[in-house]
Amino acid sequence: MDIKKNDDIQLHIDNMTSEGSAVGHYGGIAVFVRGAVTGDDIIAHIIKTSKRYAIGIVKDIITKSPCRIKSDCAVSAKCGGCSFRNMTYAEELRFKKSRVEDAVKRIGHLDTPVREVIGADKTDGYRNKAQYPVAICDGELIAGFYAYKSHRIIPCDNCKLQPPEFADCLEAFAKWVEAADVTSYDEKSGRGLLRHIYLRKTSTGEIMACAVTNGSDLPMSEVLIDNLKRISGVKSICQNVNTANSNVILGDETAVLWGSKTVTDVLCGKKFEISPNSFYQVNHDQCEKLYAKAAECAGLTGSETLVDIYCGAGTIGLTMADSAKQIFGIEIVPQAVENARRNAEINGITNAEYICGDAQHGALELEKRGIKADVVVLDPPRKGCSPDLLDTVCRMQPRRIVYVSCDTATLARDLEILDGKGYIAQEVTPVDMFPRTPHVESVALLLNKVLSFEC
């Protein structure tokens, strides 16, 4: 059955995609629709077709799904963030578990049990970081988030996922933009000053505000500083310079305009100093649950050497340091390594050492030094681990590998590779780090089939 552009078709929604789109099938062709919910019966207006799929928009809802709720955000249907704000949280967790199960079986070809999702107690106001793309029109600052699969900014200065102080910070930036006649960066021409507004708030209440600019000039910076430092909690005001013609938000150069170069968080009873370039989990409360699960999987007794690869500011390893004999962290970002060393120092941790380099380089250095890992923690970016890195890790012959993943597809791929090298995945536990969005974090435990012991 052919589907043509501008057709209106009746469609039953039977699932969701990893990007948060609803999917139904019409004449054997998958039809993807933003804004629908599993169980909806809708009239879909087709806006794009191909031989294998079609894309539609919701024209009318014939029968509402039992899982459908009314969104409490005026821009959620336009913004590319909260795809699940019109869905019950119970259904969101069910979907996220099924997504991990599907990846493990279909991509990893494994029968590893997937545990229940560790859900969040708080689904709003949980993000401790925001990176707002900006546009400036007639002296007025427009800050928000990109629409789905576009660079069109949807204005949003009071996102429900962010702490309320972020709206105050955006207002401070807006007043500076107007006073200093600031221009916004244009991707096509490469001209214009302000690229992003980058905000962080820690569990201690400290706020970092950072202007990401296309060049080092910052007109009337004293106005911006004065506006921001009046906001309760603001401890650090920075400028990050990024002149690259790319989608990367932060550049390598950061200058402190006022206050401290870091902000401090308390996580799992440890203090952490965080700089603008440091990777740090955006959901504090769920991060504590994630790290507790990772520690459970690590099974440390006090006599083990733990190697923390992609360690960032050292958070995972340092939260386990009291239960380990020795911690080695590997991280490519120099500023993050500096933070990790400082974090070990301020927590009085003396059994942690850090190597600055990519994951493969650091792992090889430890191998050359003859260091045998009892437990390896892997916390890679979305692309997962390279085959060479996995080879090096397996040559270390750890008893356990704890794999923390932000992408279920690359996790499943790497679990299959490790399975072929003698590391058997015992369980995968999803953790909902990003409620109301399609993303899900997972913790996998792998045991060396030769050296394995009870978890």
Q: Which parts are unreliable, with pLDDT below 50 for 5 consecutive residues or more? A: none
Radius of gyration: 23 Å
Strand/helix succession = EEEEEHEEEHEEHEEEEHEHEHEHEHEHEE
Question: What's the pLDDT, averaged over the residues?
Answer: 94
Distance between the terminal alpha carbons, to the nearest Å? 53 Å
Shape: globular
User: What would you call the structural class?
Assistant: alpha/beta
Helix content: 10-25%
Order of strands, widest sheet: 8-7-6-9-10-11-12
Number of helices: 9
Question: Count of DSSP E strands?
Answer: 21
Strand proportion, as a percent range, falls in 25-35%
Largest sheet: 7 strands, mixed
Question: Key terms for this structure?
Answer:
455 residues, alpha/beta, seven-stranded mixed β-sheet, 9 helices, 21 strands
Characterise this structure.
- The chain has helices at 89-106, 165-180, 221-229, 284-298, 315-320, 334-346, 359-368, 387-395, 408-420; strands at 8-16, 22-26, 29-34, 41-49, 53-63, 129-137, 140-146, 153-155, 194-201, 207-213, 234-241, 253-259, 263-267, 270-274, 305-309, 326-331, 352-356, 375-378, 400-405, 423-431, 441-448.
- The protein has 455 residues and is α/β, with parallel strands linked by helices.
- The N and C termini lie far apart (53 Å).
- The relative contact order is 0.11.
